[in-house]
Amino acid sequence: MQHQLSIRGAREHNLANIDVDLPRDRLIVFTGLSGSGKSSLAFDTIYAEGQRRYVESLSAYARQFLEMMQKPDVDHIEGLSPAISIEQKTTSRNPRSTVGTVTEIYDYMRLLFARVGIPYSPATGLPIE
Hints:
alpha+beta; Rossmann fold; 3-stranded antiparallel beta sheet
């Protein structure tokens, strides 16, 4: 597995053909002035391509229920895992809300576990075949 996320030739929105290497498995923060390209890099390039690749890997049946994102204007991205994006919004007042439902990651996690998860029997602890 790659130890970094490499982006080459990112030109989405106001990005000017940038190249960047970001460490994997770390918290990364993008800061800068308004209009400097933070959202273009984080959401419109990295997230869009990660989401696009993930949805593309699913079966045709599963894809029909999900929105397919456009390929961002970038030459090459390497070391990218499936990506999620959390919208900035007010938290829910529903007492049954969880982190998964508030961030809307719950449905994606269900898809992920349905696709790659291994079910186990609660009685025996053995994988169900």
